Amino acid sequence: MVFAHPVFAKEDRITRGEFVQMMAKHNPENVLLPKNHGDLSTSELYMQIVEALKIRGFNVLEGKADTDPLNTQEFVRITYAFTGQPAGTSLFEQKLYLKRAGIIKSADIGLATGVEGKVLQFHKGDISGNRVELASPLFADDRITNGENAKSSFTFDDGSVLTLGEDAVVNISKHIYDPEKDFRQMVINVSMGAVKFVVTKAREKNSMFKVVTPTVTASVRGTEFVVMVGPKGETTVVGIEGSIETAPILPDGSEGQRNLLSAGETQEVSPNGVASEVKKAPLHVISTAKEKTADPKNTAPDEGITRAQAKDAARATQSLSRKPAPKEKDNGAPPSDPTNTPEPLKTPGTASKGVI
Questions:
Q1: Are residues 175 and 63 in the same domain?
Q2: In this predicted structure, what is the pLDDT of residue 107?
Q3: Do the Cβ atoms of 156 and 162 come closer than 8 Å?
Q4: What is the pLDDT of residues 210-247, one digit of tens each?
Q5: Rounded to whole angstroms, how far apart are CA atoms 253 and 138?
Q6: Backbone torsions φ then ψ of 47, nearest 5 degrees
Q7: Hey, which residues does 178 pair with through a beta bridge?
Q8: Would residue 201 count as lying in a domain?
Q9: Mean pLDDT of 86-101
Q10: Are the beta carbons of 75 and 305 closer than 8 angstroms?
């Protein structure tokens, strides 16, 4: 859902309250707005919009200050709500709707927030990869490969962070995230190298975050851990914070006995699926895991939304129909894949290219 990595002064970032005020200015008849919104201060309007959004199932602003900068996820969720679309859809589906409307450029699932060295990204069906740069969008079914001495980190929509060490290879096999329900289902395959996972907690009971290597699965709800995969698929799992449920993958493809691995513990699984006992991790194992998955030197946090980008979105939202966008199959593939890129909605006054 991005532009090229933004470069702008901090004072150019729009706050949550200012964005709500801007949406009101360009959408004066919107059902989310109180009739007297023109007489309200920014903070008064903001408080009423927080409640109006909450009533309609959008908890995006609950408990958040109007004076803090608007981040990109909040931008998507608020803009989507102002188009009149219902809650209960995943963040990806909200992005996809706004993408079809021409408000954003892509329906991604996360961003590259750290890159050091040569990192390649292969979209589904690609033979050759694209060089990853800061703020490169991440899509479902993407494969990421780090070269020699390379490191990379990616931040998903739910705030979870994936950090790849040298020669690591991962594939984003499944990604579903609904921020309103705090529901997430994610599967990431690690076929080579060391990878650190910092996973945010998801409250919905059916949520799942699963990591799969050639020899073990690791399931978590919210924790930090590292997997290190060798050339024959042998895997070492190291707990940093929280707990992880592991299960070896047996030669017939089934899962073996499950084990609970806590912070400071480790388990090794051989190429034939034989798992060691869970034990306290030696200091050198923990040090190696942290060293191999250290953060890249070149990092970029969420820079927020500029006033110009917010203004363009507010104008485009005014002309959107409340009729849902036509249903089309889309697996989150980038715009370069024509089989997964629907045409934007033909709405009068909507910009032909995305804001973000």
A1: no
A2: 81
A3: yes
A4: 999 999 999 997 799 999 999 999 999 999 999 999 99
A5: 29
A6: -60, -40
A7: 183
A8: yes
A9: 87
A10: yes
Residues 83, 172, single domain; the answer is no
Distance CA(197)–CA(194), nearest Å, equals 10
Compute, in degrees rounded to 10, the torsion defined by CA atoms 334, 337, 338, 342: -20
What are the tokens at 222?
Answer: 């919210």
Q: Is residue 48 classed exposed, middle or buried when 0-12, 13-18 and 19+ CB atoms within 10 A define those classes?
A: middle
Unique residue bearing structure tokens 């008064």 = 44
What digits encode the pLDDT tens for the residues 157-194?
888 999 999 999 999 999 998 888 888 999 999 999 99
Domain count, the chain: 2
Residue 284 lies in a domain: yes
SS3 54: helix
- Buried/exposed code over 291-318 (b: 16+ C-beta within 10 A; e: otherwise): ebbeebebebebbbbbbebbbbbbbbbb
Q: How far apart are CA 329 and CA 315, in angstroms?
A: 28
Cα(118)–Cα(116) distance, rounded to whole angstroms? 7
Higher pLDDT, 356 or 306: 306
Locate 229 and state its tokens: 């995969």
Residues 123, 218 within the same domain: yes
118: left (phi over 0), alpha (psi -120 to 50) or beta: beta
CB 301 within 8 A of CB 159: no
- In the chain, the amino acid numbered 24 is A
Q: What is the pTM for the complete model shown?
A: 0.75
DSSP code of residue 326: P
Determine, yes or no, domain membership for 351: no
**Distance (Å, whole) CA 82 – CA 279:** 52
Write down the mean pLDDT value for the chain: 86
Q: Are residues 102 and 116 both part of a single domain?
A: no
Instruction: Answer yes or no: do 29 and 73 share one domain.
Output: yes
pLDDT for residue 7: 40
Band of pLDDT at residue 321, cut at 50, 70 and 90: very low
* Backbone conformation region of residue 181, classed left if phi is above 0, alpha if psi is from -120 to 50, else beta: alpha
